[in-house]
Predict the structure.
Amino acid sequence: MFICGFNMAFLNDNYLKLKAGYLFPEIGRRVKAFCDANPEAAKRLIRCGIGDVTEPLPSAVVSAMHKAVDEMAARETFKGYGPEQGYDWLRHVIAQNDFRDKGLDVADDEIFISDGSKCDCGAILDILGAKNKIAISDPVYPVYVDTNVMVGHTGDANEAGAYAKLVYLPCKPSNGFIPLPPKKHVDVIYLCSPNNPTGAAATREQLEAWVKYALEHKSVILFDAAYEAYITEPGVPHSIYEIPGARECAIEFRSFSKNGGFTGTRCAFTVVPKTLMAQTKSGEAKPLHPLWNRRSTTKFNGVSFIVQRAAEALYSPEGKAQVAELIKHYLGNAEILRKGAKKAGLKVFGGVNAPYIWVRTPKGVTSWQAFDKILGDANVVITPGSGFGSKGEGFFRISAFNSRANAEEVARRLQELKW
Ligand code: MLT
């Protein structure tokens, strides 16, 4: 109701440019509608859509959390606010185990603990300028695109869902789903390896080409390594810092969601090397590390003590062995799903260094048609490839995060489908 002569407050118009809902809530909405309309089919529904872990937390983690809760319950050991960047003991164990033990030069204070890589992938835009030319793979984890839309780094989307001003790097079977550096200049590059959604992992040579490009163009690579624990092939880099020069051009995002099963527990970290520079409006080179530190201390109060102790336990000998078991379990599912989809006559990619299988839809079938068919006939939820970008059209993703029995059942049902 119009009450007085003032104009309304302004909303962020950029949000109105976003296409429909975020992919996974949109899938959830469609699945719910299907289940409401088909209660019998709903009983046999198997979810291989969102990449959400199914197996319980490793026992090393559970013990560490119980102990941490007890500490919180006693006056002498109670903890209030922790350091915004994360406790030193967790930053140390990460830098030591994930990097220095592997010969990679990462200091403890270059590790910033957070409550998730999704959050950090969006938050990182706070410390990057608005004028950057941004390159994004297509298909891609939708968070990279949508967060850039939200802060106004793009124009409007076209019919196919591609936003003006973004540089899309097509990922196709012909390039093994790993894009080459573009001919033109870009300032910020999102890379994800092993890749969500295609399951492809970049080789050393491919990452070397990107680091060379970034150093020449003075670009920043945002390297999402959330799935590094799934790399099985020898020689495939687990970190961008395995490539000489990456400390001067890359930020790396890591997560405990997919290795330790922390999707509901929430803990991740971002590596911002002190040697990484970007320029001010006046052309002066400045390090990004103090900016990320400043952002963290202002907008974040850290991850809970209990959860950080849980993350620390993943690095104990028992924790490491239990994580290895979890990875083996999900990769075993991936193998079963790959084989099942192949036997069903489908063309299959990924699933070897990643928990995702990327499947070509049968000829003439769109991604969403495949989604509806697989949901309706097999009562299995997958993710339509077009939800990850226009070049994802004609594909769908099967997540291997499930129980073994469900993975086997999905493999069986895929073979029963009549397209
Ligand atoms: C996915 O299914 O793509 C992931 O679960 C999303 C995420 O990690 O946020």
